[in-house]
Amino acid sequence: MTWLKDVIGTEKAIIAMCHLLPLPGDPSFQKEKGMEYVVEMARKDLRALQDGGVDAVMFSNEFSLPYLTEVKTETVAAMARIIGELKSDIQIPFGVNVLWDAKKSLDLAAATGAQFVREIFTGVYASDFGIWNTNVGETVRHQYRIGAENVKLLFNIVPEAAKYLADRDIENVAKSTVFNNRPDALCVSGLTAGTETDSQILKRVKDAVPETVVLANTGVRMQNLEQQLSIADGAVVGTTFKLDGKFENHVDLERVRAFMEKVKAFRQR
């Protein structure tokens, strides 16, 4: 049994993404509609995800494009306001992801009571955002300094839109990440949000670290969920739940219900 059962309530857990609209400071922030609109759209998506039966939810600033690797204070403040206003609506375990800043994700988790964070904690990458470096030792020490030691850490080891500068195979990355850092989970992604996670890479990671929770991080959909969940311990799902399966749309309750019905049937096998 993994920690997923204790924290989220089930094995083969589905963590749904609640993608927040652009926030103050983001290029696409809709100033004329203001933060009230962002909060209401987040509430609408949250309720659709919960009513559809997902196991947990993760709030992220998905539309803060292009992303920063050192996120500004105004972004974290806006996300904390949104989650604070939604607290009475949140009925399932939740996590946070401040793209792409591990310390800021932990700050937000500590402020809001989130139970897990997903981030790029380790590695150096050539990415769409330039040279992308990390400092996991400092990040974990920061976690303990701010009293967030019980927050589960989901390590994304196949970052979207980035590639390791070192030529390392994924098995070695998985093994050394687990040995050096004791992550609560490893997340395996496709190229971008909504892009299918390569099932072969997913299997290579799980085989390399069988005692560690491994999550399919992108592109799980009706057509492949059985294949992906037969390998992974769970999945992070965003785009699939949206109207017409398009990244830029809001959550479609009926798509969520249909997906979760299939997941629940898979669990009962």
Automatic annotation (TrEMBL):
Domain of life, per lineage: Bacteria
InterPro entries linked: BtpA, RibuloseP-bd_barrel
A Pfam family per the record: BtpA
**Family note:** Belongs to the BtpA family.
Protein name according to UniProt: Sgc region protein SgcQ
The protein's organism comes out as: Brevibacillus centrosporus
